[in-house]
């Protein structure tokens, strides 16, 4: 089962794979007894022109052509499970674990998964970052000694902040692929540094506040709990909700990260499907991190297959609610009230590596403590969805973003009379600090109480709220959305101009 070997396996876990190493490894799998179950597809190019490769695993090989492949995958009725690795290319465990899993499949393994599911893997989502291997990246991490790639892409973007603004070719390619395949479950594989905790891996569901309630409750209360139990029972790995001790002190409590859908798993669940973030632990050794990630992927895929009927039912119900406009848009989010729970403390040892810096390693021994935990967000406010949103003069940038997210929309060929509500801004500000080559914008204000009759001009874009992706559309368009096209400067010119006159936001709500 262990041939061909991955780069870490042939280097005593001193090195990680380059992009070409991964492609060469995948080619070798073709010759294994069940190599035909795997198919490679190029879904796009990185900014430096490296291929973004998707590997499909299915009992019956999928056609090479993209449209045939999607149709074939959907026609089987099998579950579609998607695993994205190496988004932060210094966090290499997902890339290595995926290669091992694919080898197992090519040897005839995971028959039980393939009976009910088609698996989709992107082993290297950030190939440009991956190949910038340097010992000075992630110095504090416990190996590999040969170094790892960079967090950022060649253009300097963090791909895990790009899911609303889609500035990168990598994100555009992934969104197209996801829109095409429409996976039931998506996993995004990372590695985390941070607090001295006692877990081989931490995880999170989507933390976005606008996720469908049924899907959210199932993911948090059933799906992830079962996966957690299986990780302990089958693999002796301790896993828990992602978080950190506040200011490094356990007595201050354990708190998760961020609810905004600029993060991939937060975003993906707004499309009414399940998303799971996986974070191996930097201070465990490289082989342990890879084994924990492999086990977590396997157990998540198994849990998905076990619950396949329920997952499809919940997703369909969530889609129907969106199509019937039976959702409200939530905003003004904060961490949920603390819940006292048992969290494992861990211990770290440190080692000075000459001319590079300090490396941290986890040492054996964990201590359970009962402390306040806050691993989810709630929204304090909400607004009902309109019939549709309209933008009178959509810029090419806005049009491209609606397209990139797969949002249903149409352009008016002739003026139309409608009842419209305006969002009147009381103030707006841009952050002074540049972040991901933007200065994030926030607006304050409110939707007008009363609608007024208006002529919507030809050329305006009409975005119906009764569509399957209503939650994504609202996230992008609602002026009070906490991570939106407004946030990422797509309406800067219109907003600056409006503040000099009637202070009306460029996105209008149609009520009739
Ligand atoms: Zn990461």
Keywords:
single chain; 512 residues; alpha+beta; Aminopeptidase; 8-stranded mixed β-sheet; 6-stranded antiparallel β-sheet; 29% helix; globular; binds zinc ion
Going by CATH, the architecture of the largest domain would be 3-Layer(aba) Sandwich
**Widest sheet: strand order?**
1-2-4-3-5-10-6-7
Largest sheet features = 8 strands, mixed
The residue ranges in which pLDDT falls below 50 over 5 or more consecutive positions are none
Question: What would CATH call the homologous superfamily of the largest domain?
Answer: Zn peptidases
The tally of helices reads 14
Could you state the oligomeric state of the chains shown? Answer: single chain
In short:
By secondary structure, the chain is α+β, with helices and mostly antiparallel strands. The protein has two domains: about 5-335, Zn peptidases (Aminopeptidase); about 385-510, no CATH class. The protein contains 14 helices and 22 strands.
Describe what this molecule looks like in 3D:
The structure is a single chain. The protein has helices spanning 7-10, 19-29, 66-75, 93-106, 111-114, 127-130, 169-181, 213-235, 264-268, 286-306, 308-323, 396-404, 470-477, 492-499; strands at 38-45, 51-57, 79-85, 117-122, 185-192, 201-205, 239-241, 244-245, 254-255, 274-281, 328-335, 339-353, 357-374, 377-384, 388-391, 410-411, 416-421, 423-430, 441-447, 452-456, 461-464, 507-510. It folds into 2 domains: 7-335, Aminopeptidase, CATH 3.40.630; 385-510, no CATH class. 29% of the residues lie in helices and 28% in strands. The model has no long low-confidence stretch (mean pLDDT 97). Helix 8 links the parallel strand 6 and strand 7. It is globular, with a radius of gyration of 23 Å. It contains 14 helices and 22 strands. Strands 1-2-4-3-5-10-6-7 form an 8-stranded mixed sheet, sandwiched between helices. A 6-stranded antiparallel sheet has the order 16-21-15-22-17-20, with helices on one face. It has 512 residues and is α+β, with helices and mostly antiparallel strands. Bound molecules: zinc ion. Zinc ion is lined by residues 88, 91, 160, 190.
